[in-house]
Amino acid sequence: MTDPKKAKQVAEILAGFADPNRIRIVEFLRDGSKNVTQLAKLLSIEIVNLSHHLKVLREAGLVQDEKLGRFVIYSLHPKVFNDGDPKATVVDIGWCQIKIPHN
Questions:
Q1: How far is C-alpha 87 from the geometric centre of its chain's CA atoms?
Q2: What is the pLDDT along the chain (103 residues), one digit of tens a residue?
Q3: Taking burial as the number of CB atoms within 10 A of a residue's CB, which of 14, 35, 53, 57 is the most buried?
Q4: Is-above-0.70 flag for pTM?
């Protein structure tokens, strides 16, 4: 990989995974879309901390969000997670593929 722009994109994606809570968020979203309250309960963390992690994941292109009424629903980004299969065990980050352990 010689393209600096592509290298930066790959580094941002990898940085998105660089925290245990963010890895757990991805794992929970593999079971389906969830709102912030649901994720906070599953992770047993404060919403303010969860919001930070979701922002990092969103900026890395790993999750997407959709506003539904007063809730924001988060889901895995289908272009990264094996063309929309949330149960996929491989993530394509554009440079290599990462195998995700299945729980």
A1: 13
A2: 568 888 888 888 888 889 999 999 998 998 899 999 999 999 999 999 999 999 999 999 899 999 999 999 999 988 777 655 556 667 777 777 777 666 5
A3: 57
A4: yes
